[in-house]
Amino acid sequence: MPEILAAEGLSKHFGGLIAVNKVNLSIKKGEVAGIIGPNGSGKTTFFNLLSGFFPPTEGRMFLFGEEITHMPPYQRVMKGMVRTFQLVSVFNSMSVWENLVLSGIRFKERYTSARKFFFLSTKDDEIQENCLKALRLVGLESHASTLTSELSYGSKRLLEIGIALSLNPKLLLLDEPLSGLSDVEISEVLNLLHRIKSDLTLVIIEHKLSKIVNLVDRLCVMNEGHIICEGNPNHVLCDPSVRECYWGKEEIDQGLLQEKASA
Amino acid sequence: MNEKKTSSLNPPSKEELPSTLTNFQRKEYRKIDFLLIAAGFLLITPILSVHRVTDFMIFCIFAMSFDLLYGYMGRLSFGHMLFLGTGAYSCGLFIKYVSGNPLIAILVGIAVAGLLGILLGLIIVRTTGACFALINLAFNHIGFFLVLSPLREITRGEDGFGVSASKLGFLNFSSRPIMFGSVLLCLLLVFYLLKRLTSSPFGIMIRSIKEDETRVRFLGYNTFLYKWITFVLAGSLAGLAGTLSALNYNYVNPNSMDVHSNVGVVFACLIGGAGNLYGALVGGVVYMVISNFLPIYIHRWEMFLGFSLLIITFRFRKGICGYLLGLWEHGAKKRLIERSAEQGVAKI
Ligand SMILES: Nc1ncnc2c1ncn2[C@@H]1O[C@H](COP(=O)(O)OP(=O)(O)OP(=O)(O)O)[C@@H](O)[C@H]1O
Ligand SMILES: [Mg+2]
After folding, report:
1. Domain match, A71 and A179 both
2. What confidence tens digit (pLDDT) does each residue in B91-148 have?
3. In chain B, how many domains are there?
4. Distance between CA A9 and CA A155 in Å, rounded?
5. What are the pLDDT tens digits along chain A (263 aa)?
6. Which of A88, B242, B248, B329 could lock onto B84 through a cystine, CB 3.0 to 4.6 A?
7. pTM
8. Is B236 within the bounds of a domain?
């Protein structure tokens, strides 16, 4: 399988703190990769580097074989790499469908015309249908006209994923898509992820290991800025160094661990 | 491979659209809005005077251009008068030294103000918050100084100079009613342009930039470009207001670039309600009425402006129009709930 994303010796220093330390990682087309690790191990910082939020202290990145180390974030998005944020980031002052206008029109050929961008009303059928399509995908179509700030946290998360999906990504980076959600909301998001995973490449940061173990093809464990272990989920969970770094952490499901170990 | 995903979702037909959405599908601008605005200005002319109301409308154009920048994109500028002054001076100088044709002079004024916006925007637009406000102020000071001192030979310094545009057929700008009509037409055109712009995806873009610019970058947009476009547009429209005021007064002096007058347009947007074109219009008129008539009765009238600003910031956050709109929406929601409750009863 061809490589979509590659990081080579990627590091990020914050003053004396080394948040990401010489990480090498490659993501293959069509796979679902999970990144786990204790709090403060540098997972979000790693995503920030990949998406261009800030430049790396050292190292290089490649997207579809092209170097993107110094590419501004918006160009990376246009190349097909889209991310979500650990703290849900949607536009609270607008209604739900308005949140989807910018993402929905950007990647449809017929909207590249400047005339439409500047003068076509957003109440136009073409735009509305695009928004609704994305809303349907994440199951929020009944909330189309709701003010986004009135949505529950789980719905906002779904909306954020909907925005990301309407950008037509080839590679989607999800930063803790399940954090802060109730069990019902978690299963909604998981359902969505299972539905879309065949169409794109996914990289998911997550604490709730037991929830994503069935979703991911490959698991990478980060600790103190390093990737300490990567590979098949079952194999990774049995790795002694992973168990050591996670030992006693409530995030990991003990029962699951034992089950995998005995298997 | 993404085709699969989208093709499984057939585009929804009209009937399938959620009713909540269709309820909100009213047209963004209606003919009645234009009639109302025109009627409003016409109605106050007998009370005030044609010349005064023309002045009010020019200020309203200026306030709308400021609202695009501040109300919609969330960039507060303390130097917007620079563009008004640039428009006024370039229009006046063109008429004085080149040609008396008022229409070309107006276009020249808009173009020069726009060009200035293009150049300054390259620097200014990169900043936000206090920095944005103060850099604008700094450039406004520079402009004011240039007009007063180094360029005194052509701008006549503090005295300013007279502007007498030539007649173009019936278009005689020294006739008060013709001036009134032309300014009203310009105001309606600017209103139409901004209404369309702000209700298009571009409008959502600048509102998104106001709320969270970083997020917009991660939607694949080069936000700098859109901020720049908005800045240039706001500058050119302020320039238009400047050219009209030069023609209305037949006179240009450094007051048109006065740094202190920036306060007025900020007040106007806050009183009327920022981020709302009607707000800019209402606020513009209210501010002009206050600043024109209060000084007749009260010597230190600025104090009352201060008090009203306090009341607005603490009680009416969204200004007059925002407050009324809120009341109306609240009522509409209540009626909707009542109606659905009635229907529920009817079904049972
Ligand atoms: N912008 C920043 N400036 C300074 N330090 C930062 C910044 N972002 C992250 N850090 C530091 O880098 C380290 C890694 O943080 P990061 O957010 O990447 O962890 P994480 O693995 O995502 O943790 P969590 O599971 O809590 O989300 C932390 O010690 C954090 O304090
Ligand atoms: Mg994190």
Report:
1. yes
2. 999 998 888 888 899 999 999 999 999 999 999 999 988 999 999 999 999 999 998 8
3. 2
4. 37
5. 578 899 999 999 998 899 998 999 999 998 999 998 888 889 999 999 999 999 999 999 999 988 898 999 998 998 889 999 988 899 998 988 889 888 888 655 545 667 778 887 778 777 888 888 888 888 888 888 888 888 899 899 999 999 999 888 899 999 999 888 888 889 889 999 998 888 899 999 988 788 888 888 898 888 888 888 888 888 877 777 777 766 545 445 555 655 555 55
6. B242
7. 0.87
8. yes
- According to DSSP, the β-strands at A58-63 and B161-162 are unpaired
User: Looking at beta carbons, which residues of chain A come within 8 Å of B12?
Assistant: 129, 132-133, 136
Write down the ipTM of this complex: 0.86
- Supply the residue whose CA is at minimum distance from atom 19 of ligand 1: A40
B196 interface with A at CB cutoff 8 Å: yes
Query: What integer pLDDT is reported at residue B14 of this predicted model?
Result: 42
Q: How far A254 CA lies from chain B's nearest CA (Å)?
A: 37
B212 touches chain A (CB under 8 A): yes
Residues A127 and A236 in one domain: no
Do residues A180 and A76 share a domain? yes
CA A175 / ligand 2 centre spacing (Å):
7
Where a domain ends, among B248, B274, B290? B290
pLDDT score for B23? 42
Answer whether B290 touches A (CB < 8 Å). Answer: no
Q: What is the pLDDT of residues B209-262, one digit of tens each?
A: 999 999 999 998 889 999 999 999 999 999 999 999 999 988 898 888 988 888
Amino acid at B294: L
Instruction: Give the list of residues 6+ apart from residue A81 with CB closer than 8 angstroms, or none.
Output: A5, A50, A51, A63, A169, A170, A171, A173
Average pLDDT, chain A: 84
Task: List the single residue in A with minimal CA-CA distance to B211.
Answer: A91
Partner-chain contact B222 A103, CB within 8 Å: no
Give the containing element (helix H, strand E) for B171. none
Q: Which positions in chain A touch B220 (Cβ < 8 Å)?
A: 74, 77-78, 82, 103, 106-107, 167
Measured between beta carbons, which residues in chain B are less than 8 angstroms from residue A63? none
| Inter-chain residue contact A103 with B25, CB threshold 8 Å | no
Residue B211 belongs to some domain of the structure: yes
If one counts the domains in chain A, the total is: 2
Torsion sign, CA atoms B178, B180, B184, B187: positive
Specify whether A76 is located in the same domain as A176.
yes
Q: Percent of chain B having pLDDT more than 70?
A: 90
The alpha carbon dihedral of A35, A39, A42, A45 has a sign of positive
Interface of A with B in 162-181 (CB under 8 A): 163, 167-168
**Domain co-membership, B134 together with B272:** yes
